[in-house]
Design brief:
mainly alpha
């Protein structure tokens, strides 16, 4: 028998044995009792602010906005520097 066929045979035998071994385990898992009550609703934090213009950012007292801060969007930073509604 060639080594390649030997590996295929071993893999097939291992697959069959694992199927047989799991045959005694799976019915016990299938009959286990699971809690089906729905989880309580999660509370969401305050949504990130949305500013449609730098005038809104300045009016809110949040200028300048840095990349990663709530409310920062790329269209408020046309130069792509990471600073929106800068000085």
């Amino acid at each position: 028998m060639k080594p390649r066929n030997s590996l295929r045979l071993r893999a097939s035998v291992a697959a069959c044995l694992s199927t047989i071994a799991l045959g005694g385990f799976l019915p016990a898992v299938a009959s286990a009792h699971y809690d089906t009550t729905p989880a309580p609703p999660t509370t969401k934090g305050a949504p990130h602010p949305y500013y449609s213009s730098c005038d809104q950012v300045r009016a809110a007292g949040k200028a300048p906005l840095l990349a990663g801060q709530p409310g920062y969007t790329g269209f408020l930073d046309p130069k792509g520097t990471g600073v929106a509604c800068g000085y």
